[in-house]
Amino acid sequence: MPAPLTTAEGLPYRITGPTEPASPLVLASPHSGREYPGAFLAQSRLSLGQLRRAEDAYVDELLAAAVAVGAPMIAARYGRAYLDLNRDADEIDPAMVADPLPPSPGQASDRVAAGLGILPRIAAHGLDIYASRLRLADVELRVKALHRPYHAALDMLVGRALRRHGFAILLDCHSMPTPPGPNAPQFVLGDLHGTTAAPALVEAIEAEIAAQGFRVARNTPYAGGYTTRHHSDRLRGVHVVQIEVDRALYMDPARLARHGGFALVAATLARIVEMLLERAPGLGLLPERREAAE
């Protein structure tokens, strides 16, 4: 068996998983990072515990069993409150920055308006993160140091899978607060309303989750974010599905403490990967031009 690939030192992300043979699957966990630079903590008016409420805590650890099945994973090192990797680089709130910003469409996004741009203005419970406005140079440095390298590395992993198999599947994994209402979904699959992945792929994942005894929904309340939109390319054979897991299934959200449900959720995610490794070649994921030629 090939030695596992592990990268982290000096990088804003960690990659774990097999080197060869390359899997057609890639796993991503952009919101599970739990490192916070000292300068940021000094800027923030919130405690470390309050900042950590913004994390998709332990999602990278939930995926460890899935990685062991045979899919590489890229995971953030730094906390989401410091920089949100699942946002466009121009989703910057001008009100947070002391210097003038060059105009950009991303500044008017709904996420920015809600305080959840690439540099979030608020953490959990709607608390303001910063006591004062940021310098533009600081904003640009974070984007350059974290956002660009992460998505470049994700492109590399997806490209490696695509070259080897003719198609690639990216599962962008997150946790969510328990949705309101009776019989709320425990898993939510996002494909931007049918645009970022082949229907057969989403249906297979949905069926597997349901077979494990969980309630699953599509695109409501989460249809996908920047990663889903930016990295998908069905014409080339790149399919992206966002997976949201109710964090109460595996931890106490108030204490950020794992509980007995952790193993079952981890096993379910591993089973999804195992199923896709078996079935993906028959799901019609190759580019249309290649399928036509064959």
Assign a percent range to the helix content: 25-40%
* Percentage of residues in DSSP E strands: 15-25%
Structural class: alpha/beta
CATH fold topology: Aminopeptidase
The domain count comes to: 1
Q: In the CATH hierarchy, what is the superfamily?
A: Zn-dependent exopeptidases
Mean pLDDT: 94
H/E element order: EEEHHHHEHHEEHEHEEEHH
Broad CATH class: Alpha Beta
Q: How would you write the strand order of the largest sheet? A: 1-2-4-3-5-8-6-7
- Biggest β-sheet, characterized? 8 strands, mixed
Query: Unreliable stretches, pLDDT < 50, 5 or more residues?
Result: 290-294
Total beta strand runs: 10
Describe the model:
With 294 residues, the chain is α/β, with parallel strands linked by helices. It has one domain: Aminopeptidase. The protein is built from ten helices and ten strands. The strands form two sheets. An eight-stranded mixed beta sheet has the order 1-2-4-3-5-8-6-7, sandwiched between helices. A two-stranded antiparallel sheet has the order 9-10. Strand 9 and strand 10 form a beta hairpin. It is globular, with a radius of gyration of 19 Å.
Quickly describe the structure.
InterPro entries: N-FG_amidohydro. The chain is an alpha/beta fold and 294 residues long. Helix content is 33%, strand content 16%.
Write the layout of secondary structure elements.
Blueprint: E1 4-7, E2 13-18, E3 25-29, H1 38-43, H2 48-52, H3 59-62, H4 64-69, E4 73-76, H5 110-113, H6 136-165, E5 168-176, E6 187-190, H7 199-211, E7 216-218, H8 226-231, E8 238-246, E9 251-252, E10 257-258, H9 262-279, H10 288-293
Helix pairs in contact: 7-9
